[in-house]
Amino acid sequence: MGMKKPEDVILFKNNKRIDGRKPDELRPIKIEAGVLYRADGSAYVEWGGNKILAAVYGPREALPKHIQDPRKAIVNARYNMAAFSVEDRKRPGPDRRSIEISKVISEALERVILTEQFPRASIDVNIEVLDADAGTRCAGLTAAGVALADAGIPMRDIPVACAAGKVEGKVILDLCKEEDNYGDADMPVAIAPLTDEILLLQMDGHLTYEEFEKALDLAIKGCHIVSELQKKALLKKYERVLEVE
Amino acid sequence: MGMKKPEDVILFKNNKRIDGRKPDELRPIKIEAGVLYRADGSAYVEWGGNKILAAVYGPREALPKHIQDPRKAIVNARYNMAAFSVEDRKRPGPDRRSIEISKVISEALERVILTEQFPRASIDVNIEVLDADAGTRCAGLTAAGVALADAGIPMRDIPVACAAGKVEGKVILDLCKEEDNYGDADMPVAIAPLTDEILLLQMDGHLTYEEFEKALDLAIKGCHIVSELQKKALLKKYERVLEVE
Amino acid sequence: MGMKKPEDVILFKNNKRIDGRKPDELRPIKIEAGVLYRADGSAYVEWGGNKILAAVYGPREALPKHIQDPRKAIVNARYNMAAFSVEDRKRPGPDRRSIEISKVISEALERVILTEQFPRASIDVNIEVLDADAGTRCAGLTAAGVALADAGIPMRDIPVACAAGKVEGKVILDLCKEEDNYGDADMPVAIAPLTDEILLLQMDGHLTYEEFEKALDLAIKGCHIVSELQKKALLKKYERVLEVE
Amino acid sequence: MSSSVVPSIKKDFIYKLISEGKRIDGRAFDEYRSIKIETGLIRKAEGSAKVKIGNTQVLVGIKMDVGEPYPDSPDMGVLTTSAELIPLASPDFEAGPPGKEAIELARVVDRGIRESEIIQLDKLCIEPGEKVWIMFIDIHVLDQDGNLFDASLLASLAALYTSTVPAERFELGENFKLPLSKDPPISCTSVKLNNAIVIDPVLDEEEIADARLTVATDKKGDIRAMQKGLSGSFTIEEVKKIIKASIINGKKLREVLNKSIRG
Amino acid sequence: MSSSVVPSIKKDFIYKLISEGKRIDGRAFDEYRSIKIETGLIRKAEGSAKVKIGNTQVLVGIKMDVGEPYPDSPDMGVLTTSAELIPLASPDFEAGPPGKEAIELARVVDRGIRESEIIQLDKLCIEPGEKVWIMFIDIHVLDQDGNLFDASLLASLAALYTSTVPAERFELGENFKLPLSKDPPISCTSVKLNNAIVIDPVLDEEEIADARLTVATDKKGDIRAMQKGLSGSFTIEEVKKIIKASIINGKKLREVLNKSIRG
Amino acid sequence: MSSSVVPSIKKDFIYKLISEGKRIDGRAFDEYRSIKIETGLIRKAEGSAKVKIGNTQVLVGIKMDVGEPYPDSPDMGVLTTSAELIPLASPDFEAGPPGKEAIELARVVDRGIRESEIIQLDKLCIEPGEKVWIMFIDIHVLDQDGNLFDASLLASLAALYTSTVPAERFELGENFKLPLSKDPPISCTSVKLNNAIVIDPVLDEEEIADARLTVATDKKGDIRAMQKGLSGSFTIEEVKKIIKASIINGKKLREVLNKSIRG
């Protein structure tokens, strides 16, 4: 949003988007579970040009002690961009954007994890953006969901995310970089797919109420497609493990 | 001090100061007690162009535990300037100047508070400069005194502060901005008005011993005038409370 | 290393080095033990143009508690350069270079200290470079060895350090500034002189295996010479103490 | 916020009230507390406003400076929004660099203002690629009794609409009113509490809420920004309900804002 | 690393194996784990490589920017090496600014590359004294199972040798391959364990090791850098033995590297 | 300083001595410890001095650089004063950024020098508005046995008076003596202890003192700066008494300073 569109950029024409997709079409997505040795659970997601790793550690004793919650586990997601994941090198360490994203992802994940089973514990979810295109927070949350399942963390559901938005007056699914920069609205949504409960919802730009309803509907449909890919990745990992055993 | 005076600035002429005041005259001062909802005690002070809020929290358990003093309460004053309170925006967070002022104000307040009544506790005094003219540390300490009384913190006395100084060889009370910038000396003084004990004393510039005696005398007189305004503000608050009840 | 040598700089000629020394000759070294009042042990070392103070505090309770090791004392060396010790003023506080040097010196010292005698304690070694020429880490470690002995810390041996290196194809002892800047290799070595165990070893530049053997031999010889100076300084201190008593 | 614990007895009490259709301070579920906006308080700022929503107080000051534009927008002024949750405002706020709550607050207000494009940043260019106006919105929370999002956005808007660009101080010609478009986004925040939705929560409600949704709307009632918070979830229907209530209340808050900046 | 305690039972087990001439994963004392190098993974980077040594994984990305040279080398590009021990890679790594382990790692890799002069920094000058290429080597550890030094240097080299200087993006002519000399230093790391010397330690070995020595050698087998670590000591003979083993293994690792960057 | 606790037995002992008119080290209440000043110790600094007052040792180094002036004083050099309470000097000093004690120390020394205008900052202008000399006074406390204020100001003055502006290093003509006026402010610090006033306190006295007053005076005996510290109070008479003693002792300290910089 917010960037002035160069005149020669045509975001939507003949029902086709700038990268050739249809309005309700996702970018190519590849998900792999159990990709790291040290982590208790892990996942790798390629989503368009995004390459994202997620690793889960825990439940383990929350430290320092004064952060412990005697009633439940703390869910501590940390979204981080590698210095080389963006065009202009990003200085290492959290910036304001990544702190906000870490916060909303932590809150979204906390809802589905059975935190009350692990008082005084922390469940640490590390999301590393290695190569960034548009939509890293949705891809990161999706990877986190798989990594949590891979770690065997008890959950009500496997959380999943997908964005919808608007370009040139048209509601679309899963914005690419140009659509994100020059489009009219971006709305990342995370849900628990069994119930369609909304875990994360942000929006920037301009939507009429009717467009919002359409976009929300589209984003949830996208979430369900990605959810199937999450489950396939987990299944494949279990099959792999069974083969080895 | 220390700034070269432009030639057209006349700080003192015909027994009048640059803002029209007499040598021993204070700027207009307005004090209000009990202005915040959450704080245990609070005060608002307008003093010339200064606008200052003070809020007191405590006595409460000092944290982290290792800072606790088993014999008495810690008095922790924090002087802070809002980013927009000065001509060139101040970066948020403490700078060296505000750390020093916080230190000398904390020490001055500690003397009058009956800290031995609250072992292991902290008494936190937050002084926010919202609009800064000259003399913010005196106005801030004065506000803190009212906020402490408003919070019901047991004190030997209500501390109060006022500066004296020198411009063009003349000893004066309560320097304004131009006098502060281009004058010969600035001497903030805080006292316990019941005994005239000196709680805070700083001086920059150039005073002969005789001028110092005169300036100290003038500053203490100023303190007593401001002390009366402090008491009136507290009385008014109590009357207001009684009316409500 | 790594700096392009100006054409008029001749590092080695007629078996003489740029500062007139022979290949295996040390710069002038002066060591004094027990130079500070507050420290439990201290030493001052002048080594060429280097001026270095070391002070030891401890064994004392390691704080905060969570850093304590129940089996032994922590050795915490802190190498620091004074802001005015180098040509271009150094910003106060640790930089990456001083953090690395602190780490390798801490590890070297830990080997000789009988840390198992002081569980949960810390032994703090402060090394201050007041005037820097080349070779501050060796001079600093040497000063630390004397300060530890002066503090009466039980040690297997008094650690000592000296560098060897290469300029214009010639293996030399104890590089001076120009040799450090424009030379071919620098190799600081610390040993426990009773056993010639190697406590610290770093190398940058270019050495054939044969040159390495020669340089290591030379560095160890240098260490033994410096070791004698350490012992003399400690003896002198004890004599001084005995005289006073 | 999580650090302050409302005793469970208070939680039970609020839950019970909610189940009876009542709130702790007697308001209807979709009713705001009284709102008061004062502008032009800070002489040293180019614009300022203090907003009271019930007992919550937020002071915003605008400062301007001259500096370089970003390389990717050489002919646009620069906007920076910061929020300080100073320890003066709450026993739960600690001194130190902004934590995640303060950062989220600043970023939500910043996006609300930036994405709605009410500030005509192109009119804040002095020399393309070289010199532009740098604008700082500083949110100073003075008294925290809930709903900082709405109070902070309102105060930022009231401060902006009463700001003067200090061109004279920088010897850049005459001072002029900050160029703004007329349709600012107004945010309304609701929380979910024991499965009920209440708008403009007080702190006691916020502390036991499951989920929070902030919705910024424009004059026409279109949606300009949203931010969901807290670790609970919303159903689709709840989200729709909140948006509709936000559109209605947004109109009322807009009236209050307009009155304050006309005065 | 010191924070993670291998239970003493595991230590006893590893010691016993060592005394029988065996290692926990069955390798010979002077044998490396299998090594896999992939390059060109990160589209946004000018060059990138992922190195796996056994279960250890390190990803390095190269970014380039245009900036000012250092005053004392006005006609040379600038090189900066950073390492992040991100909490993703190990339960013992904590978020926050680099600690002493990360700093030592970055500095050892940096010196290995800088002192060997493989990067022709003089060819990265754009305008002497004014404008040069600034190069960032960012070491991102993904999975920590020991021997980060060797994995990080290998990954840095593989990333460098497959990097393109993005001149077009900065409107400075055509992109070109990063100019590098052909003889990179290859480091081999050994640790001393119960008086035995083993190369390429896994984490379980590193955690109970007494001393560590990293030796970088060139094609000819000359020594280009060394770094001793940990609080134990080496005898002179042990150091010589390690250097000799490093020269031999260095040749093997060089083969692996060359294959990956030719591919 | 507050963290180190002098056992109450020592406090009682010092109090008892004081009530008998004696001090722990046998000095009179208005008597300084012996003072030793050495200059020109640090070859890398433009000027340096080490001051010993009893067992207290402070080393000050002056460094100069070339940089931009402040916009509001385009034709003046820039002065920056920092103090480091390094852990070498006391078991109570911790590593890390300067705490409030170090900041107060640096600011009091800085004001003493700045307000007395002994440095002719206008003579440190190279090109008005563009280039001036930047001067750093770095106070490095080596051994803390009380009265750091006086030792630090004395050491700063001795270092300044023996400093050379390194113009040659910056290719700005010949080196020259730092231009200074001849009447530096000399500070004397007293503390109140069990209702007595003692000058030049040792650490044992400082730690149990109620209040501290530092008074800087000039050659004529006029007051140039004051700073009260600690949480006790002074009566008006006590302040006057301290000032008078500071004027007298200031003259003696000035002699010591003058001798050291003439040498």
Number of domains of chain D: 1
- What is the mean predicted local confidence, pLDDT of chain A? 95
Tell me the count of domains of chain A.
1
Low-confidence parts of chain A, pLDDT < 50 over ≥5 residues? none
Beta-strand portion of chain A reads: 25-35%
What is the name of the CATH superfamily of chain D? GHMP Kinase, N-terminal domain
Biggest sheet statistics of chain D: 6 strands, mixed
Give the name of the CATH architecture of chain A. Answer: 2-Layer Sandwich
Assigned CATH class of chain A: Alpha Beta
Q: Enter the CATH topology name of chain D.
A: Ribosomal Protein S5, domain 2
Instruction: Please report the total strand number of chain A as a whole number.
Output: 11
Q: What is the average of the pLDDT values of chain D?
A: 94
Number of helices of chain D: 5
Looking at CATH, the homologous superfamily of chain A is GHMP Kinase, N-terminal domain
How many strand segments of chain D?
12
CATH architecture of chain D: 2-Layer Sandwich
Q: What form of chain A results from the Cα inertia axes?
A: globular
Tell me about this structure.
The complex is a heterohexamer, with 3 copies of chain A (245 residues) and 3 copies of chain D (263 residues). Chain A starts with 11 loop residues before the first strand and ends with a helix. Chain A has one domain: Ribosomal Protein S5, domain 2. In chain A, a hairpin with a 4-residue loop joins strand 10 (185-192) and strand 11. Chain A has a 5-stranded mixed β-sheet with strand order 3-4-5-7-6. Chain A has 245 residues and is α+β, with helices and mostly antiparallel strands. In chain A, helix 2 (136-150) packs parallel to helix 4 (209-244). Chain A has helices at 96-112, 136-150, 177-182, 209-244, and strands spanning 12-13, 16-17, 29-33, 41-47, 50-61, 74-81, 121-131, 160-167, 170-173, 185-192, 197-207. With 263 residues, chain D is an alpha+beta fold. Chain D has one domain: GHMP Kinase, N-terminal domain (Ribosomal Protein S5, domain 2, 2-Layer Sandwich), CATH 3.30.230.70. Chain D is 29% helix and 29% strand. In chain D, strands 1, 2, 3, 4, 5 and 6 form a 6-stranded mixed β-sheet that branches. A 4-stranded antiparallel β-sheet of chain D has the order 10-9-11-12. In chain D, helix 2 crosses helix 3 (148-161). The radius of gyration of chain D is 19 Å and the shape is elongated. The two termini of chain D are 35 Å apart. The model of chain D has no long low-confidence stretch (mean pLDDT 94). Chains in contact: A-D, A-E, B-D, B-F, C-E, C-F. At the A-D interface, helix 1, strand 11 and helix 4 of A face helix 2, strand 12 and helix 5 of D.
